[in-house]
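Lab notebook, design round three. We kept the backbone fixed and only want residue identities now. Task for the bench partner: fill in a sequence for the structure below.
Input structure tokens:
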């Protein structure tokens, strides 16, 4: 496979085929650096050598009624995850300071829930208004479950920039992962966010037993939605969930292939090496920055992660730079 030629085609506005995307995931380790270089050229065109930092705030934890098999915040699974209802406006606003201190481009408010209640939505909206007043350059992303158009408009009007709602996996594999809602409901919420003018953050989770074709199909479903941001998560089995104790089938090279494939399929989207990157990528974390241009720092919703100073050092050592809050143009140096 001529990976440079495929990269050139995408650079010039063409598209990768599903067959070629599958070939990326099936490629040998000997081809990996060539694939990463082809993906990097696409990434550099759209994002330069910058890396955007995101910080998560778990604003509601451990009481979700849905049965997503990977998620330790489902109330259906027994574990020691902290459980609490929606945090106060004051607590959420205070959390934004941690994002600013870490040069984060976005502060991401996540509530484990099927859908936000009117009261919960107003808490997020009021917190957003106060954060925007205090930190006007800090972008706000919220992840609150299923949305109606009316609720999406409320978030937009309050100043939320982006809404996250992951598809998680392919339509074919989705019933193996979630039974309390269906794939089409997720698609509907994603389209609703885009309809009202919110940026759409929408990705998935690899390593749950899906096929390589399922991984490709997820990427193309995201491309069809014209997503603005793609968090690529890698399974880190959580205690109490159906995946607990099961070995993760992904190797570090598999993760790099997945990120490269996503860059080929969604060339202009922000690609994030997201949950599980520290545990699954291990020593190859810096190589993930060749296809990906974004990471979370200082941990995830219910698990720890690399601290900001570690991530900052990794980014600088690899020859990249942290995107400054408010900056819009890629640094091409």
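Proposed sequence:
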């Amino acid at each position: 496979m001529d990976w440079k030629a495929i990269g050139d085609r995408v650079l010039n506005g063409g598209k990768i085929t599903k067959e070629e995307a599958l070939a990326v995931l099936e490629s040998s380790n000997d081809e990996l650096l060539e694939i990463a270089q082809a993906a990097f050229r696409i990434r550099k065109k759209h994002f330069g050598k910058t890396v955007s930092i995101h910080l998560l705030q778990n604003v509601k934890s451990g009481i979700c009624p849905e049965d997503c098999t990977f998620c330790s915040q489902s109330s259906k699974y027994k574990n020691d995850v902290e459980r609490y209802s929606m945090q106060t406006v004051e607590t959420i606003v205070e959390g934004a300071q941690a994002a600013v201190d870490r040069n984060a481009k976005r502060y991401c408010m996540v509530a484990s829930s099927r859908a936000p209640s009117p009261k919960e939505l107003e808490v997020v909206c009021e917190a957003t208004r106060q954060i925007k007043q205090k930190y006007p350059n800090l972008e706000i992303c919220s992840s609150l479950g299923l949305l109606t158009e009316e609720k999406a408009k409320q978030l937009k009007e309050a100043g939320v920039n982006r809404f996250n709602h992951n598809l998680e996996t392919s339509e074919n594999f989705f019933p193996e992962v979630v039974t309390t809602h269906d794939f089409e409901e997720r698609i509907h919420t994603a389209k609703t966010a885009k309809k009202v003018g919110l940026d759409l953050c929408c990705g998935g989770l690899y390593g749950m037993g899906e096929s390589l074709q399922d991984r490709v199909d997820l990427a193309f479903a995201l491309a069809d939605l014209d997503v603005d941001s793609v968090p690529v998560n890698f399974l880190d089995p959580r205690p109490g969930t159906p995946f607990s104790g099961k070995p993760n089938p992904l190797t570090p090279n598999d993760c790099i292939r997945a990120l490269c494939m996503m860059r080929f399929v969604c060339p202009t989207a922000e690609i994030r090496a997201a949950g599980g990157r520290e545990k699954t990528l291990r020593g190859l974390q810096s190589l993930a920055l060749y296809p990906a241009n974004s990471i979370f720092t200082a941990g995830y919703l219910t698990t720890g992660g690399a601290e900001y100073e570690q991530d900052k050092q990794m980014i600088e050592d690899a020859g990249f730079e942290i995107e400054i809050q408010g900056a819009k143009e890629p640094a091409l140096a």
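Keep this in mind before ordering anything: The radius of gyration is 19 Å.
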